[in-house]
Amino acid sequence: MLKTRRLLDANVNRAREGLRVLEDICRFIFADLALTEELKTIRHSLRDLLDIPDALLVASRGADEDVARERPVPRRADLRQIVAANAKRAAEALRVLEEFCPRGSLLKDQRYKVYDLEKIIAVRARLARPFDHDVYVISADPAVLLDAVRNGSRIVQLRDKESGVDVVCQKLLSVKRLKESHDFSLIVNDYPELVARVGLDGVHVGQDTDAAAVRQAIGADKILGLTTHNIEQAKKAVELKVNYISAGPIWATPTKPRRQPVGLEYVREVAANIELPFVAIGGIDLTNVRSVLDAGADTIGVVRSAGQTAEYLRLIRFE
Ligand SMILES: Cc1ncc(COP(=O)(O)OP(=O)(O)O)c(N)n1
Ligand SMILES: Cc1nc(C(=O)O)sc1CCOP(=O)(O)O
């Protein structure tokens, strides 16, 4: 009996902790009161539904005897992984309670609510943080994007200035297949109409495009990225409610030959003043990437040095 109570106590705690993490993400990161309240209601309902006095559960607690106590909390790479891990933790704990608790069947609805909420929160996480300590690889060549994802990049962009829309569409489809085995965001440069047609995560546009019209076209739950070259454009981007901006080109680059470099000073300015996620881009290579990170960027964008993705990621994620 004591052992069963200990199991119940562990799983009530596990469910509450998982729900609490989701709740705090909704509260502090998304500032979404409705989602926060929904999660809070589920969390608070556990004790009532189970109808086991707190004191009984606490009395049975035996954290010292828990054989899995020393297992470290795994390092999560980004907000999406934190959401997935904690939703899973909450749902699994609810499932255990359903099995072992006399009134456990009452928890089934709560578990299904958690599954539904996870889907909503996962989309929100992707929009709020389209990248986090990442290498955003941009190429016209699908093979380059596939390699980047296999090397750990979680956001890639097809940017093809030569082909027509149908070829771009085919290239995107060939990259999208990798989603069956890898979690990453697939973005297209220009062509907002392909977001729905291919089922992409979003689109990146430049200053020559009406970002508000693009938002209208792709909908609120897709990623919209906007190029910026100065702080006024970055501030305007905040008003436009894009999901991220790029800041560049930091150094002169043959990939964008007519564009004046903005220098590391612009990276510092964005890091200090703009709340939106940003990707620093332009002229980055392994010899200068450290200065970009030191200026406040946690994600870099690369075209020519896409082949160094794994090396960049080691620097960005593990140092
Ligand atoms: C992440 C990222 N940053 C900048 C660009 C450049 O886009 P844009 O301003 O549209 O310029 P061109 O691609 O037309 O040269 C990008 N594609 N992605
Ligand atoms: C496509 C692009 N946009 C930039 C911008 O600042 O808007 S810089 C850039 C090219 C970046 O290429 P590389 O990594 O080869 O220097």
From TrEMBL:
Positions of the Thiamine phosphate synthase/TenI domain: 142-305
Molecular function (Gene Ontology), one example: thiamine-phosphate diphosphorylase activity
Pfam family, one: ThiD2
The keyword Cytoplasm is annotated on this UniProt entry: no
Annotated metabolic or biological route of this protein: Cofactor biosynthesis; thiamine diphosphate biosynthesis; thiamine phosphate from 4-amino-2-methyl-5-diphosphomethylpyrimidine and 4-methyl-5-(2-phosphoethyl)-thiazole: step 1/1
UniProt record, GO biological process: thiamine biosynthetic process; thiamine diphosphate biosynthetic process
CDD domains found in the cross-reference section: TMP_TenI
InterPro entries on file: Aldolase_TIM, ThiamineP_synth_sf, ThiamineP_synth_TenI, ThiD2, TMP_synthase
Protein EC: 2.5.1.3
Gene Ontology CC: one annotated term: cytoplasm
Location of the ThiD2 domain: 6-119
Alphabetical UniProt keywords: Magnesium, Metal-binding, Thiamine biosynthesis, Transferase
Residue spans crossing the bilayer: none
Cofactor(s) required, per the database record: Mg(2+)
UniProt catalytic activity: 4-methyl-5-(2-phosphooxyethyl)-thiazole + 4-amino-2-methyl-5-(diphosphooxymethyl)pyrimidine + H(+) = thiamine phosphate + diphosphate; 2-[(2R,5Z)-2-carboxy-4-methylthiazol-5(2H)-ylidene]ethyl phosphate + 4-amino-2-methyl-5-(diphosphooxymethyl)pyrimidine + 2 H(+) = thiamine phosphate + CO2 + diphosphate; 2-(2-carboxy-4-methylthiazol-5-yl)ethyl phosphate + 4-amino-2-methyl-5-(diphosphooxymethyl)pyrimidine + 2 H(+) = thiamine phosphate + CO2 + diphosphate
Family: Belongs to the thiamine-phosphate synthase family.
UniProt protein name: Thiamine-phosphate synthase
